């Protein structure tokens, strides 16, 4: 009987109202109760329309909440919706009702998506901090402990992990807690741009990690091959559950990949954020800062992917060709046919085109081992491409190099065009990198010398003293007594290495004799130049003289890191970056040797008996940096600035940095590693 009554009710309902009318009229009323962009849970489902129809009390404008008898009053917007529903029941304005429904759905969807993006940022940040802790507290600590036993140099371990401890401290102590707190307060403060805008400047510490990433990966590879203790310890850690069956190199790549992840999430966040939102300006500013840092990380990721591809090819070639080099870049690979010179028969071959060479290979049909044998290595230098015509064998072209000339046949006209284009572009790029300055001037006749360099070569320069620099003032590579010695440019007086001084020009002040000059002076004196954009300086590439002249404090300090010997360093805290300490080898160096983001460090100004006089220490996690001034007065001058910087303040006033920092942070126990 119940089933029969139900069927009668449905028939009566269908006879009274059309299906479209009843369904569409019931939906929009659910969206009229919205609080902070979300549906009010107290006005959810109406009483069953079927029951009302059966009782004869059907009404398109009255809905009952569960457990509440009286009809809920409608707000002003709700009254308007009621009128539209009534019009819909009378067969009027169906499009208006649909548009209103879509409006409410869109508003709710955007707010939900903003919350979802913020929540994804929090969840991925938690996982990322766990990986940083794995690198810092597991891999780094255990390898350092083994190094201290004398198994391998501790300096190598420090180079591999760079400043991973500082990166870990920043994310675990500042960024993650801020995000955790904000997501708990999301109902009242639905924004993340202000947090990222405040903390994004500290992502510049990634510059040091990314810059040394290639060398770190190469160091891991070499130490794994040559030092059994290093290899066994790394493999032992990799077997642990926390590693997830991933290698050390994989985990080392995560900090490089993290910055582009922030950029992607923030771009998505801005797309969903209304332009009139209070969070718009902060989110836009933080995206600009993060995008700059992401460009360096993306470059490192591309290098890593290229290195992986080179390793794969290295194995395919039977590990006989020395191609695994960061300077090598794979351009194109694929099957090709080679026309024999004697009988013009086509033979199957395989080509690997790199930025500096072409590997001409013969396939090996074996189930295990190498897949190809290198028959010829043709250098790009001197290579020429000629399109040939052969009636019996279409789609042919010729590769002519110093080592060998090959007549090749592509599988189709398109394949031939792609190979010729790739080869020619590679040749052009190679010559552009290696062409002489005389050839460059033929392409650009508008080049002229600047007025400020009019006296260059006409008057003897003042030579920079050898002891004023520790690195080449052009390429920024460190000097050493064997492979990179100091040389002076006879035109500008700069101290440069042999590579950067491998040019000669006639100098008027020396009677027109040929003298050794640097690359830049050769361009100006000879009238030859390269039309290259000036590269954006990295954090370590800021010249000492540039920051020293506009600094909060700068002087020579004795510096010691962990158990290393004391060494003299020119230390600077610039006004434009007052929370970072830059360390140079000498006042005229064009590149910093290291930087220390001071935020969060604990200052210890009580020297031990074994320390130098007027010394103080900066401690964070297991990072310990010791400094010693020449006098007590100079020491207090430095401490006055550093004590403000470690709490996020500057001499000019409080800085907009993490509010969670304690005014007087307690010193923490030194890490065992």
From TrEMBL:
Q: Which PANTHER family match?
A: FACIOGENITAL DYSPLASIA PROTEIN (PTHR12673), FYVE, RHOGEF AND PH DOMAIN-CONTAINING PROTEIN 4 (PTHR12673:SF98)
> Which SUPFAM superfamilies has this protein been placed in?
DBL homology domain (DH-domain) (SSF48065), PH domain-like (SSF50729)
User: What are the protein's UniProt keywords?
Assistant: Cell projection, Cytoplasm, Cytoskeleton, Guanine-nucleotide releasing factor, Metal-binding, Phosphoprotein, Repeat, Zinc, Zinc-finger
What this protein is called in its record is: FYVE, RhoGEF and PH domain-containing protein 4 isoform X5
Point to the regions of Polar residues compositional bias: 45-64
Q: Tell me the InterPro entries matching this sequence.
A: DBL_dom_sf, DH_dom, FDG4_N_PH, FGD1-4_PH2, FYVE_RhoGEF_PH, PH-like_dom_sf, PH_domain, Znf_FYVE
What is the species of this protein?
A: Sapajus apella (Brown-capped capuchin)
Q: Which residues form the PH domain?
A: 329-428, 550-647
Any one Gene Ontology BP term: cytoskeleton organization
List where in the cell it is found.
Cell projection; Cytoplasm, Cytoskeleton
Q: Which domain of life is it from?
A: Eukaryota
Q: Where is this region: Disordered?
A: 1-94, 649-673
Could you tell me which residue ranges the FYVE-type domain spans?
Answer: 466-526
Record's compositionally biased regions (Basic and acidic residues): 81-91, 659-673
Tell whether Cytoplasm is among the UniProt keywords.
yes
User: SMART domains recorded for this chain?
Assistant: FYVE, PH, RhoGEF
Identify one Pfam family in the record: PH
Write out the GO cellular component annotations: cell projection; cytoplasm; cytoskeleton
Alphabetized GO MF terms: guanyl-nucleotide exchange factor activity; zinc ion binding
Q: Where is the DH domain?
A: 113-300
Q: Gene for this protein? A: FGD4
Source species taxonomy = Eukaryota, Metazoa, Chordata, Craniata, Vertebrata
